[in-house]
Amino acid sequence: xxxxxxxxxxxxxxxxxxxxxxxxxxxxxxxxxxxxxxxxxxxxxxxxxxxxxxxxxxxxxxxxxxxxxxxxxxxxxxxxxxxxxxxxxxxxxxxxxxxxxxxxxxxxxxxxxxxxxxxxxxxxxxxxx
Length: 129
Known about the structure:
The chain is α+β, with helices and mostly antiparallel strands and 129 residues long. The chain has one domain. Helices cover 51% and strands 14% of the residues. The protein has a four-stranded mixed beta sheet. The longest helix has 28 residues, at 95-122. It is globular and about 40 Å long. The model has no long low-confidence stretch (mean pLDDT 93).
């Protein structure tokens, strides 16, 4: 693939949950030769994304065709780029599911993942940039 991907996901490679999920998507995208890229926030200059480290560790960020998507919307855009997951993107956009899933991801799932990351960071287990 000579040109840069139309879609890029920014994730926290120090987070076991984030890393496992994004590595799974990255492996799938590579096998399917999809124009999707993945950036570990710990290995790039976050200025390229226009976000702070704290913002990047709180929620998934996806850049698609020059537009930044955050949180649940980022997942929907990412899934829509991968044939195997397009059904999840369609389902996740249904009005009731969208609002419940967006709230649940932002206020429950992402918050738990972020707080665990902060605890690992406080113990010196991550963040060796």
